[in-house]
Design brief:
Layout: E1 16-22, E2 37-46, E3 49-55, H1 58-103
Antiparallel strand pairs: 1-2, 2-3
C-alpha cells in the first residue's frame, strides 16, 4: 500500500489529451474579439459524463501522456488475455462435447 517513504505509484488513466478554447468573460479581453484562450486538458468519460482535467504546463502534459500510454499498453495486454481465454474456452468445450459424444 502506498504510504510514507514509498515511491509514488505510476499513474494510469484512460482518455484523451485535448486542446480547449474558451472565452473568459471579461469584456475588454482579446477573447471577446474572437481570440479565444487555449488550454490543454485530459478528457475522460466516466459513468456517461465527460470530465476535463486542466493541464497547466508541459510537465503535466508529459505525465498524463505517459499515464495514457500505460493504460493503452495494459488494455492491449488485457485484450490479448481475453483472446487467449476465448481460445482456451473453445478448446475445453470442444473436448467436453467430444467426451460426451463418446459416452453416448
Amino acid at each position: 500500500m502506498p504510504g510514507d517513504g514509498d515511491a509514488p505509484v505510476p499513474l494510469m488513466v484512460r482518455g484523451s489529451i485535448v486542446t480547449t478554447r474558451r472565452r473568459c468573460g471579461t469584456a475588454s479581453c482579446r477573447c471577446a474579439r474572437g481570440e479565444l484562450h487555449e488550454g490543454v486538458a485530459l478528457s475522460v468519460s466516466l459513468g456517461g459524463k465527460t470530465t476535463l482535467v486542466t493541464l497547466k504546463d508541459d510537465g503535466e502534459v508529459a505525465e498524463v501522456a505517459a499515464a495514457l500510454e500505460r493504460y493503452r499498453v495494459a488494455a492491449a495486454e488485457l485484450e490479448a488475455k481475453v483472446g487467449d481465454g476465448l481460445v482456451e474456452l473453445r478448446r475445453r468445450l470442444a473436448m467436453a462435447r467430444a467426451s460426451a459424444r463418446r459416452r453416448a
